[in-house]
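User: Reviewer 2 asked us to show a designed sequence for the structure in our supplementary figure. I'm pasting the structure tokens here. Could you produce the per-position amino acids so we can include them in the response letter?
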């Protein structure tokens, strides 16, 4: 019987990995989207378009741009943290914490976009912090995670057995 994931304490963080390329891309996209909507809001009164735009419409365009930019920034959230007690995987919205005893292995299948944690019953957890587009950064992250898994998975198994 394992503890609920909220109660898994990963201990002192020995490894923290965040993707690189998607973070730059998401920030650039967020700035572009917000600037686009802000410019549109400022220019609606410049040319006559046949519609009656009011200040409330301008505010709504800026708010919509801010919301869409915020949605783009969700892609900056992925993170992987690992310590003696387990691993924490944060995706764009959800976060999962697993003890090392539940992680059977770390893999990065050929052609896959993301690394993954292999779990019992042929299940796996995608690690969106380790992305193929980050090449060497992702490879170093997978290697470090595999070292921690080898070190702490054995210690976990020995403590339970």
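Assistant: Here is a per-position design you can include in the supplement:
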């Amino acid at each position: 019987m394992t503890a609920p994931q909220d109660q898994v304490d990963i201990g002192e963080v020995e490894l923290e990995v965040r993707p690189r390329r998607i973070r730059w891309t998401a920030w650039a996209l967020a700035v572009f989207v917000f600037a686009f909507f802000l410019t549109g809001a400022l220019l609606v009164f410049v040319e006559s378009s046949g519609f009656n735009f009011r200040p409330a419409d301008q505010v709504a365009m800026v708010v919509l741009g801010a919301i869409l930019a915020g949605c783009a920034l969700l892609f900056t959230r992925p993170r992987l943290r690992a310590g003696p007690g387990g691993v924490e995987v944060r995706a764009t919205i959800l976060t999962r914490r697993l003890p090392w005893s539940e992680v059977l292995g770390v893999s990065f299948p050929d052609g896959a976009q993301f690394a993954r944690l292999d779990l019992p019953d042929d299940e796996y957890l995608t690690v969106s912090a380790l992305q193929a587009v980050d090449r060497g950064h992702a490879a170093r992250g997978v290697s470090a995670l595999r070292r921690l898994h080898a070190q702490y998975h054995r210690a976990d198994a020995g403590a339970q057995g």
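For the response letter, you might also mention the following. Residues 136-160 form the longest helix (25 residues). The domain at 5-19+78-160 is CATH 2.30.29 (PH-domain like).
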